[in-house]
Design brief:
The chain is an alpha/beta fold. It has 31 helices and 23 strands. The longest helix has 22 residues. The termini are far apart. It comes from Salipiger bermudensis (strain DSM 26914 / JCM 13377 / KCTC 12554 / HTCC2601).
């Protein structure tokens, strides 16, 4: 090949370059965090395109999250110096499999417009199944069955392939229920997440001709985060790469954090066996983090056994040590981090001022997020939650989407059940049972069952009238979605028509007629929400949440804009793992450690390092080290996300699911190498200021850790003292911030009209500690910190 200038190769080191340029045959890149695996993978795509080896649609490139896929697309575009004309097969396993499955749905017993169920629907379905089988859900919870079925699907076991060794699962009825569940899904024209892969693998195995077609089509295969593939994903890859074997996988055994979801690190180790002659590339230079950060992460991961054992180095010497700080409770921790973020924005500790986009808070469990969200709302600090308690999981959003789903897929029974009596249509349990019964009797969907029940007069009275109206509405909305009919013909199945519009008579207001030109899907969505009475339901609702819910519905319609149609949108929602709203402006990111994989931020906060939270209680209760080792890898992932500043914190007390619990600092804190850690003093303890840190490691590690935190009052601390036979220490002073807030609160009295920067106008209805309870005109009743409230003197 003639040597061409290739600027994208210039900023790679020789090992990376080797991995990029060796395009044909199997390549495995096995290397630690931040060594430029993803960068090399991206450059490899560019190299494939530039060298003319493949067109964009011939490259199959698998990333772990949708966010990562978007990022990779942008990076490829940047390296190429031009917008790429679509990389249709760059995405997550799930996103790619949805596309494949839509093309071959009939081979899995589905129609191409199948619905993808989320966990909530899945559980509801399983509950019905358990009830129908007279199984006591209290003893045998649906959630457990769902976990079991997921586990089997992750191993690519269809019901008939579940091995005999699993026969005793779920009180010996697991396999049978799995089979029933699959049948039910087919009847509903639906599949769950696990099915997306399972169906495609099954189709490939049963139809070699189809597999061959795709083997030829996807000329090059690339996989990021390979350490987290499960058996089904692995089989899928092996099938697709089986012909040409042009597959390049990159991963890091130390970052395998999805074992609980069936991922097998073993896949990495098996690569060379499956693809003999595979070229293995190792990278050792870390380009992301400073020396202290890398050394701290290395110190923690060293506690794991059976590693491949990679040593990393960085040219970024020195920098800030990893900071460690303890707090009285989770609220205090959130408050402190909020203040740190604000001072980092201004520039502190010799660091340049940082944008909020440069900072991230990575939590072990999503319930930890609430404290940060509350705090940041109070102080007006912009933040985004990635993959957290999602917008799309809110009740009103799920209701609205059930309407949309039913319009897109009329046989989506779960959606029908969700909305049939929402808003109230006088269709109680009895009427709903009648619909179920009719549907079963005729072997049709619930919606069709409802139509029959109404037509045959099985459901009478007001409820019957409302139900008829609902059925008619749904049919009309669907027509509006499919758009104009062909003159004298049918709407084609795929909804794509080049029809002539037969528009003879003018329409009256509010009337939609067969043949009406297609409205935008935003208009349609609004129409559905209005005409169904759903919007009115919340307008008439007097609870404080109602205005917020109406806001959310508006937001939902807004979100539709980015999609071509309702189906595309529903698919997106079913698949997304992150939900950044595209509002402008910099924001702090809050996400779980799991969601942070592959990402990097100049500043990282790692809160909640307490035994029982991180490592999780479950991993500590387990016999053996497996769970604990996975948690340790998660700690390694967390620390290695940081480029310049990494702060680990823990709280002595924490409210978990409404209950106060005291905690001891995480055992992983003991594993941080002392010389790379700086212990900060919490503001209230020695009169404030961070300079007065006690030397780390004075006394036993555990005592020092606790002494640095305000944990003296906690039962956990007392237990610790009993154990070490120490004299109780003095109580911590009130933190400085609390004092300020108490002063602030004294300026208010109940009944007073006030203004809050985030929630607007309201009246004080109660005062509690440093907080005011305010009945806001728009936001309803909230407790806020007095400091951010202004008295209105009108
Ligand atoms: P992780 O294991 O966390 O996914 P990774 O190995 O995929 O990490 P990348 O995200 O590709 O690492 O790279 C980490 C950082 O180092 C990025 O900011 C990237 O731009 C930079 N980088 C990678 N390779 C080089 C290089 N050869 N020269 C300079 N910077 C590099
Ligand atoms: Mg990466």
């Amino acid at each position: 090949m003639a040597a061409r200038p290739a600027p994208y190769l210039d900023d790679l080191n020789p090992a990376q370059r080797e991995a990029v340029e060796r395009l044909d045959g199997p390549v495995l890149m096995l290397a630690g965090a931040g060594t430029g695996k993803t960068k090399a993978l991206t450059s490899r795509i560019v190299h494939l395109l530039v060298s003319g080896k493949a067109r964009p649609n011939e490259i199959l490139s698998v990333t772990f999250t949708n966010k990562a896929a978007r990022e990779m697309k942008t990076r490829v575009g940047r390296l190429l110096g031009q917008q790429i004309e679509g990389m249709p097969w760059l995405g997550t396993f799930h996103a790619i499999c949805v596309k494949l499955l839509r093309r071959h749905a009939e081979l899995a017993g589905l129609k191409s417009n199948f619905t993808i169920l989320d966990t909530d629907d899945q559980i509801r379905l399983l509950k019905q199944l358990l009830a129908a089988n007279n199984i006591d859900e209290k003893r045998w919870p649906a959630r457990q069955l769902s976990g079991l079925i997921d586990h089997w699907k992750n191993r690519a076991w269809t019901p008939s392939k579940v091995p005999a060794s699993e026969a005793s699962a779920f009180n010996h009825r697991g396999t049978e229920l799995y089979e029933q569940y699959q049948t039910r899904l087919r009847e509903l024209n639906a599949c769950d997440f696990g099915d997306l892969l399972l169906h495609v693998v099954t189709i490939f195995q049963a139809h070699p001709d189809i597999l061959e077609q795709y083997q030829r089509w996807f000329r090059y295969i690339l996989v990021d985060e390979y350490q987290d593939t499960n058996v089904a994903q692995y089989l899928w890859l092996r099938l697709l790469a089986g012909g040409h074997k042009n597959i390049c996988c990159v991963g890091d055994d130390d970052q395998s954090i999805y074992g609980w979801r069936g991922a097998e690190v073993g896949n990495i180790l098996r690569f060379e066996k499956d693809f003999p002659g595979a070229h293995v590339v190792r990278l050792e230079q870390n380009y992301r983090s400073t020396e202290h950060i890398l050394a701290a992460a290395g110190g923690v991961i060293r506690g794991n056994e059976g590693r491949l054992g990679k040593e990393l180095w960085t040219a970024a010497e020195g920098g800030e040590k990893v900071r460690l700080i303890g707090h009285w409770d989770g609220e205090e921790e959130a408050r402190w981090i909020g203040e740190e973020i604000e001072s980092l924005q201004k520039g502190t500790r010799g660091l340049d001022p940082k944008s909020l986009d440069d900072m991230a808070i990575l939590v072990r469990a999503s319930h930890q997020m609430r404290a940060f969200e509350d705090r940041f709302l109070t102080i007006g600090l912009p933040y985004r939650v990635i993959g957290g308690p999602r917008f799309y999981e809110r009740m009103e959003i799920r209701d609205a989407m059930a309407y949309f789903r039913l319009v897109v897929s009329p046989d989506d029974d779960l959606a029908f059940e969700r909305i049939v009596n929402t808003p109230k249509r006088g269709l109680g349990d009895k009427a709903q049972q009648l619909i179920q019964h009719t549907a079963r009797q005729f072997g049709v969907s619930l919606l069709d069952g409802a139509r029959i029940a109404v037509d045959e007069g099985r459901i009478k009275g007001k409820g019957g009238g409302h139900l008829r109206q609902l059925c008619e509405n749904l049919a009309r909305w669907r027509e509006a979605m499919l758009g104009p009919v062909l003159r004298g013909g049918e709407v084609p199945d795929d909804g794509i028509e080049d029809a002539v519009i037969d528009n003879e008579e003018p329409l009256t207001v509010g009337e939609t007629r067969r043949g009406t030109p297609r409205m935008t899907h935003m208009e349609l969505a609004e129409m559905i929400l209005d005409e169904s009475g759903y919007t009115a339901m919340w307008q008439n609702d007097k609870t404080p949440e109602a205005p917020g819910r109406l806001e959310n519905l508006k937001e939902l319609v807004k979100a539709l804009e980015q999609f071509e149609n309702l189906q595309g949108f529903l698919e997106h929602v079913a698949l997304i793992m992150d939900n950044e709203t595209e509002e402008s402006g910099a924001k702090v990111s809050i996400m779980t450690l799991h969601a942070a994989k592959g990402l990097e931020f100049p500043v990282v906060f790692l809160p909640g390092w307490e035994d029982g939270l991180f490592p999780s209680q479950r991993s500590m209760d387990e016999s053996g080290q497996k769970g604990l080792e996975e948690e340790r890898r998660l700690a390694y992932v967390g620390i290695t996300r940081a480029e310049q500043l990494c702060t680990i914190s823990f709280a002595g007390n924490r409210r978990v699911f409404g209950q106060w619990q005291s905690a001891l600092p995480s055992r992983f804190i003991d594993e941080l190498p002392e010389q790379h850690v700086e212990v900060l003093t919490p503001p209230g303890l020695y009169g404030g200021g961070f300079g007065a840190a006690a030397p780390y490691g004075a006394g036993s590690g555990l005592e020092t850790r606790a002494a640095e935190a305000n944990v003296y009052n906690s039962p956990g601390w007392k237990r610790l003292q009993e154990r070490s036979g120490q004299r109780p220490m003095s109580q911590p002073r009130e933190s400085r911030n609390t004092v300020i807030d108490l002063q602030a609160v004294s300026a208010f009295e109940t009944g007073q009209r006030v203004f809050h920067q985030k929630f607007g106008y309201g009246a004080v209805i109660g005062i509690e500690g440093d907080k005011l309870e305010i009945d806001f005109e728009k936001a309803g009743v909230k407790k806020v910190v007095a400091r951010f409230v202004h008295a209105e003197n009108d």
